[in-house]
Amino acid sequence: MTASALLSRLRLPVVAAPMFLASGPELVIAASRAGIIGSFPTPNCRTIAELDGWLTQITTALGTGPDAVPWALNLITHSTNTRLSADLEQVAKHHPPIVITALGSPRPVVDVVHAYGGIVLADVVSLTLARKAADAGADGLVCVSAGAGGHTGSLSPLPFIAAVRDSFEGLVCVGGGIATGAGVAGAVAAGADLVYMGTRFLASRESIALEGHKQMVVDSGIDDLVVSAAITGTPASWLRPSLAAVGIDPAATAVVARDYSTEMSNIRRWKDTWAAGQGLSTIRAIDTTAQIVDRLAEEYAAALDRAGRLAFAR
């Protein structure tokens, strides 16, 4: 699938971002059927057998080959992910149309995905990493910016898009605090092809996040977020009330070893410590994915109309 073919098949240029312990097959299927790109990270499956089952469920619902409804699989390519080779075997078996790499180089993934005609996107948090990912063969770059939930970035979205666009001709996706259709329109106007939205879909009916996590997203605002490396060793955006509930001081400076494996000791770091991005202030209910996409489409159209009227007025 080419980049232009992918974009032409979407109702909105949005990716329901892969969220640890929140994205599952129901959310992927609902998002993709609604006209955006659904995705999930492989560590949400405890075993390869479970991953195989999820991928079978998704491909049965969304199809395979050139006619498949677009969806994405997220792979952790950091050296601590000892299951990467086994995950890649499942990629070669099920042919997800899009594979998103995170926390490491896309190089181990590119040949496998390109062999069956898939697209590789790479999460990046700096221009240096963007250049390395492009050199490794990524078809697109996901600019993880300040305001993103979970493992977050530090760069502002608009200058990050501009800097990447200056030297990269592939797909550019951006994420970081965008939770409305107007935000999508703004990112597209700034040069993005796609927009990552995680938190907006965390509080969906189809999300596998704990109900307490979903409700905390609805009940919280930007001031309830804190960026801390105290949980995983990498800066991430957390809901402060969830840290307080388990007695974690977000200001702690103790060094935490980075670990992105599927071992239960690592999973427990996230189970009761809940992440969210800065777009949570616009989320006021736990809705279905279809309802969320409908609302985003209305907001997107209204934002484009407003921009057009302002341009015409000048």
UniProtKB/TrEMBL annotation:
InterPro entries: Aldolase_TIM (IPR013785), NMO (IPR004136). Keywords: Flavoprotein, FMN, Monooxygenase, Oxidoreductase, Signal. Gene3D superfamilies: Aldolase class I (3.20.20.70). The keyword Oxidoreductase applies. Its EC number is 1.13.12.16. Residues 1-16 form the signal peptide. PANTHER family: BLR1330 PROTEIN (PTHR42747:SF4), NITRONATE MONOOXYGENASE-RELATED (PTHR42747). Belongs to the nitronate monooxygenase family. NMO class I subfamily. This is Nitronate monooxygenase. It comes from Glaciibacter psychrotolerans. The lineage of its organism: Bacteria, Bacillati, Actinomycetota, Actinomycetes, Micrococcales.
